[in-house]
Amino acid sequence: MPRSLAAALLAAVLIPLSSAQAEPLSLESAIQRTLAAAPENAVAQAQKEALRAARGLAGTRPPPSVEFFAENFAGTGPYMLDRSEVTASYAPVIERGSKRQARVALVDRDLEVADAEALARRLDATALAHRGYVEVQAAEAALALARQRLVIARNLAREVGRRVAAARDPLFAGTRANTLVAEALVDIEVAEHARDAALVRLVAL
Question: What is the three-class DSSP state of 61?
Answer without folding.
Answer: coil
